[in-house]
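Hi everyone,

Forwarding the result from last night's run.
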Amino acid sequence: MFKEKTVKSNYLFNGKVINLRIDEVETHSNRISTREIVEHNGGVGIVAVEDGNVFLVRQYRRPLDEIIYEIPAGKLEKGEEPLNCAYRELEEETGYKALDMKLMTSIYTSPGFCTEKLYIYFCDKMVKTKTNFDEDEYLELIEVPILEAKKMILEGTIKDAKSIVGILMLNDFIDK
């Protein structure tokens, strides 16, 4: 196949959420090229459904300078199992504790330059507890009928990729 061979790697930045690495690679045609790579631990998204409604969080996202709608989600801590992260994030962001979750799929967010892999889970069995936002986090939980959420996608109101993937896959997971 066309796999590239790493000649050398150099880290330009090591942060709390991402690392930036520059790789010098030998391509399949024996040329030397440069690749800029963002390393990210990955994350989870949870499509939580109760009484025909999907849970969405409305929050401000600084990189976009915009308020957007998303399914509950969060970053994986180093070494954390995705399923454990999904249980934790659902309760933190919604105040609901999952009794069971099913993996819907996993996706790469931007495979051309980023290692981030997201695991998307389905949950329709949960009990009410309380939210536990991160210190710098503010979000609003809304419950939207599933068909309305799909309409929000088609109208461009929901723009977040993990949310679009999870919501559009719902028919394969409800009542199964």
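The chain has two domains: 5-40, 43-172.

Cheers,
N.
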